[in-house]
Design brief:
globular
Length: about 425
């Protein structure tokens, strides 16, 4: 099925509306949060602060993530998506009030944690429900559209946030501008909640005969079952590990880009220029994501899923070298574009691989486990980069370590003798 036919697919289009309305709002929210925390004139950005931000946002979800899988496999995913979007709309209204008041302490951290935790539940639920709406042979293309369209819209939402903030900056103080952005984001999440009502209660699972009562002990048992399922499907497990390696490296490069734009490529006393430069680099990464998704189905059709994933991770290893050799706006953009391009080929192909291996009974908990593993890698990549990066962001070591991780992952983790050849 072609990309355009999938976009017009009567059932898939409803899921895409939920995902994309939420993710353009994610970009707006993250733009406001980054502006408030990392690009405010009174706050000096450094790699450790940014890395701690990643850890604060992601690690707690990695603790509760296993029980998210239990929820997604036991209750209506449509209802879970509706109430989760409604909850994060209310939560962001509280965050907007806190930022309006200039509060940066524990209370803001708690509500930001809640916001990102809910977001991961929603994305896991959308991924788990997608195979029930589309034919198996169209999974790779459907994932390419869903994941890449969402990633691009996060970037677009961030750009809209930067634009709105620049527009209102001259009329109000920075904190009030950021709180306005977050209030707009709360309305966006409310729209995502309304979009879920276009799905029937059981349309995206779980299947009726598979539902049981969820419980704390059930969550632990279900995660063991999810791990056991991946042990039986080693190629899916290795694919998830490859995504984790790529995302960890991408986070390290993102931290590098943030510091280069904030403190080296632009005047540190003018953080709004650094934010605009960072957004510009992310825009090229978004273009790479889009093109990578369009290429993935053709690459898979020609080489097979497993070979295409190895090639994508191996190709990713070459581009951080460009940034290691010379740090400039051009080399940063080239690295951002091609690393995102190769990474998206890897991501959409692996999502389809995992979905094709997993029975719906396990799907929610396996995708929750998937998120936990990837989140842990993102935090690890951020913390490792934080201890190696200077405040300027100028570093040879970090890009070369990313290159090494990608190369070893492609040559060892995804080697043909262990990573299956079958399409």
């Amino acid at each position: 099925m072609s990309f355009w036919a999938l976009l017009r697919h009567p059932r898939l289009s409803r899921l895409l509306a939920i995902r994309w309305s939420g993710q353009i709002t994610d970009g707006l929210f993250q733009s406001a949060l980054a502006s408030f925390v990392l690009f405010s004139p009174e706050r000096q950005a450094n790699a450790l602060n940014a890395a701690i931000g990643f850890a604060v946002v992601l690690l707690p979800y990695s603790v509760v993530g296993p029980f998210v899988g239990t929820i997604l496999d036991r209750v209506s995913r449509q209802r879970a998506l509706f109430y989760a979007n409604l909850a994060r709309a209310i939560n962001l209204a509280v965050v907007a009030l806190l930022i309006f008041s200039g509060k940066t302490g524990l209370e803001l951290t708690i509500f930001v944690l809640i916001a990102f935790g809910i977001n991961r539940l929603i994305l896991a639920g959308l991924s788990a429900g997608l195979p029930l709406l589309i034919e198996p042979q169209s999974l790779i293309s459907a994932n390419a559209i869903a994941v890449t369209g969402g990633s691009v819209l996060v970037v677009i939402g961030g750009g809209i946030g930067v634009g709105i903030r620049a527009l209102v900056d001259s009329f109000t103080i920075a904190n009030h501008a950021d709180s306005l952005l977050i209030l707009i984001a709360a309305i966006g999440y409310l729209m995502a909640a309304l979009n879920t009502t276009r799905l029937r209660k059981e349309e995206i699972g779980p299947l009726p005969h598979e539902q049981e009562a969820a419980s704390f002990l059930g969550g632990i048992r279900d995660m063991r079952e999810g791990v056991g399922f991946l042990e039986e499907h080693v190629d899916a497990a290795r694919g998830i590990a490859a995504i984790a390696i790529h995302r960890g490296g991408l986070t390290a490069l993102t931290l590098t880009a943030l510091l280069l734009e904030r403190n080296t490529f632009n005047d540190p006393s003018k953080p709004e220029e650094g934010l605009a430069g960072f957004g510009f680099a992310l825009s090229f990464a978004g273009i790479g994501l889009t093109l990578g998704a369009f290429l993935a189905p053709y690459g898979v059709a020609r080489l097979g899923r497993h070979r295409w994933m190895r090639l994508s991770l191996l190709a990713s290893a070459f581009f951080p070298i460009i940034l290691a050799v010379h740090q400039s706006q051009i080399t940063l953009i080239v690295t951002a574009f091609f690393t995102a391009f190769c990474g998206q080929n890897l991501k959409v192909t692996n999502d389809a691989l995992v979905q094709s291996k997993i029975d719906d009974y396990f799907r929610g908990r396996v995708f929750a486990l998937y998120d936990v593993i990837v989140n842990g890698a993102i935090v690890s990549g951020a913390l490792i980069a934080a201890f190696l990066l200077p405040v300027s962001g100028i570093s040879v070591v970090v890009p070369l370590l990313v290159t090494l991780a990608y190369f070893v992952g492609a040559m060892h983790l995804l080697r043909p003798s262990k990573f299956m050849q079958a399409i």
